[in-house]
Amino acid sequence: MGLFPYLRVKDRGPPIMTRDQSGDGSITNADDFEAALAEVVEKAVKADVDVRGAWEFRTRGSTHEWEVEIIELARYDDQEEG
What we know:
Elements: E1 7-8, E2 16-17, H1 30-46, E3 53-58, E4 65-70
Parallel strand pairs: 2-3
Antiparallel strand pairs: 1-2, 3-4
């Protein structure tokens, strides 16, 4: 199994995320969700995974299916004029 076993790439379309990787902490509010998402994205980027693009996510045991779009934002130096 690879570094990110919760990703399964289909023949067509975006990768499908299928495994619960929420870790030890629980997610009870938007701040928890953002922190968990940031942790997963940062780990993937450090492992040279291109996280940009659309990712479909199917939750286990429910009828929900999601799509998450990850877009890299430009960073501007605070001192830059513009």
